Amino acid sequence: MARFTTLQATTVRRHTTRFLARIGISVALATAFAGMPAPAGAAGKGKVLVIMSSAHQLELRDGKQYATGYYLDELAVPLRKLIDAGYTPVYASPDGTVPSYDRVSHDKMFFDGSEEKLAAAVKLVQGEQGPVHPKKLSAVLAEGTAGYAGIFIPGGHAPMQDLSQDQELGKILLTFHDTQRPTGVICHGPTALLSTLSDPLAFRKALIAGDIESTSKIAAGWPYAGYRLTVFSSAEEKFIEGPKAQLGGYVQFHAADALAEAGAHVDRVAAYHPNVVEDRELVSGEQPFSSDAFGDAFVARLDSYQAR
After folding, report:
1. Is the separation of the CB atoms in 153 and 184 below 8 Å?
2. How far apart are CA 306 and CA 41, in angstroms?
């Protein structure tokens, strides 16, 4: 078999790349196929662990339930920014099943009134770059988190049901906290931070029972005590509570109250106005109308950490 000289091989690679690009294959894929290094800036910046809830129902007071999941824009908007910035999302959830999104969030009002942006968001989360093949949290814990640049937990009411009391998630979050790697949480997602309590299940029970003395004892030593953060406010929650409102009932506890009881300094603005708070490694957004600003802030924090 004839052998190419270095010059001939380079010429073949160049023409192959041009041909593949001309028929619609991306430059990055074309160059990889042709054996050439990708252009500067095309390489990924690293992986971001995206934690999804496995809950599809939120338990309300009086035995009622609310069909829920993640909020579409709270995942899709920051996710698009992460991918465009060069980060690769890796999904995980308690049981490793495909999460659902809250149908109330399927609304163009969360996407600047644009049907096109709404459709693009649905396409993104249901495609291969979305949470269609999540790992189990136990698998992530076994593998370790050293290979991740940061961790992101979107909202929707679902995290209040399982992530807030998931002890495996608590151990995962602590690995990011201990290394000060960027941690992004939005809307009800910040309640997942409660999983790092010494006994998150007991804290939840005491919180629901209104046992402030017990919540105070359990909260001692919480890793995020003293952090400034934001979360779906009690005023915003009350607006959608009630038999004739969105939830059809009342939540067992308000996210903002729970985090305050644990020791966080909870910031809020006027209901349903954008709000993003940054403190140390933590970036938090208040509700779905904060998703755009939150995504920008979280990507900026990741980039800053990577530049160290």
Report:
1. yes
2. 14
